[in-house]
Amino acid sequence: MRRFGLSLICLFGLLTATEGRETIRLANYPSLSPDGKILAFEWGGDIWTVPVTGGVARPLTRHPARDSEPKFSPDGKTIAFISDRDGSNQIY
Which pTM does this prediction carry? Predict the structure, then answer.
């Protein structure tokens, strides 16, 4: 749990730029990868990832629908998320 708390600090302390160098504010639903190296989060209705050491956040989804609540699979190879892209909230 302490490790997750440190990741939250990384999320809000180090996520200062995206690909377009736009400041990320109010990121939601942080999810730490099983190996503790990647942080996934929702911002602007899309799912993003960033290394916990800091750096440029990269979008995983770019869709007009709202994507949220990313969760890593136990092996860390995939990320599930909730989206309303089909009209109601579904897991993708």
Answer: 0.77
Distance of CA 22 to the CA centre of its chain: 16
Polymer length of the chain: 92
Which CA distances in Å does 52 have to 14, 17, 34, 66, 90?
A: 8, 14, 12, 24, 28
C-alpha 74: how far from chain center: 16
Q: Which residues pair with 48 in a beta bridge?
A: 41, 59
Rounded CA separation 15/51 (Å): 10
In whole angstroms, give the CA distance from residue 63 to residue 77. 21
For 62-91, what is each residue's pLDDT tens digit? 999 999 999 999 999 999 999 999 999 999
Taking only the tens place, the pLDDT of each residue in 4-47 is 554 454 444 445 444 566 788 889 999 999 999 999 999 999 99
